[in-house]
Amino acid sequence: xxxxxxxxxxxxxxxxxxxxxxxxxxxxxxxxxxxxxxxxxxxxxxxxxxxxxxxxxxxxxxxxxxxxxxxxxxxxxxxxxxxxxxxxxxxxxxxxxxxxxxxxxxxxxxxxxxxxxxxxxxxxxxxxxxxxxxxxxxxxxxxxxxxxxxxxxxxxxxxxxxxxxxxxxxxxxxxxxxxxxxxxxxxxxxxxxxxxxxxxxxxxxxxxxxxxxxxxxxxxxxxxxxxxxxxxxxxxxxxxxxxxxxxxxxxxxxxxxxxxxxxxxxxxxxxxxxxxxxxxxxxxxxxxxxxxxxxxxxxxxxxxxxxxxxxxxxxxxxxxxxxxxxxxxxxxxxxxxxxxxxxxxxxxxxxxxxxxxxxxxxxxxxxxxxxxxxxxxxxxxxxxxxxxxxxxxxxxxxxxxxxxxxxxxxxxxxxxxxxxxxxxxxxxxxxxxxxxxxxxxxxxxxxxxxxxxxxxxxxxxxxxxxxxxxxxxxxxxxxxxxxxx
Length: 485
Known about the structure:
Layout: H1 3-11, H2 31-41, H3 44-78, H4 80-101, H5 104-115, H6 120-156, H7 163-169, H8 172-188, H9 192-247, H10 262-290, H11 295-320, H12 323-332, H13 336-363, H14 365-371, H15 380-405, H16 409-429, H17 434-467, H18 469-472
């Protein structure tokens, strides 16, 4: 980011009152709110966040739409059973990718955002370390899946015919983590427009490749096409990273990369453990319901309604992606007052928008669920519960960015463990209630998670305000050295 933008962020908390000429934009707002709203809207920090949020939403939204189009075309080409096998290969690789990624995308974002303005050499070491570690860990995970493919296909998936597809899909465990790490580097440099273009371009490239793969090679051809599109996207992303680091004055420091080895334990390790909780816990809750009488039908109702919870969370996480590098920069540069103000403003805005969206979706739930077909008419209550869970989980993205920017990854792991315990326990207790019970469990889990996370965030933000960045660092002073020190 250019120096003038950095200066805007530094003075955002001390802006002059908005001139009276700006007030007509809020003529329909009560006078008591017009002035602070006008001041907020005209802030350079607000404009910076809005621009980043736009590109983040654009990239993720277009990528999701293209992925949906590709899935529909492939499903129509393959049919139900082969498409299910293709999905099985994807989910198997995805489960292992949480380990292969080693949390390096988040690590790269955090430390590059904090270092690159004042310590480009340190940022270069982080670029080199994260890239090398992603390639090594991802490659090792891929080799493991390649070797174990016959056993996984036969014993775990009960589908021995998938052995060859799993072996080809093991390449995803190399390209996926490397690509994720490169996107984390771009996010740390706040190149959201570049991220959007690379992500949308990769998604657009994957659609024709998957269609051709399905037509020429069936399910196996789809796996080959998926690996090829992922590899090409990784190459494109590599070019984007080289351009962005060059413009930021950063040169990857491979020779001295191990000087930042503490980052792997203090940040990447708890991030990986936290990520490893999500997929297994979600799978276990579904398995609990599936083992009840009529459980598969209940899971169908839940899956349909849960798409709307995911919509709320997707918007919140996509728009909030700009916050992590901003929080990291403000925290690591010692701008405690700006950090606190940015956190509380972002939290309130996210909570208000999510609550409004949940209210609208709850009111329209009967009409929405009727679109899915006659069998789904009775799932309006399930959808209403799940959008409430979405409204509770949306602010957690802001809290998570704040805690992560302060280096409190082990604390975040503990919060995720609490979420998992509540979700699993409540799902088991309400297992006989099917989709409704699972939805209530989600509301309870995210409610407990939000309350506990907010309590922790208050402590962390106050610590930042009292002592600056050094007072709340969860890693060594060498790793968290403020830029220019």
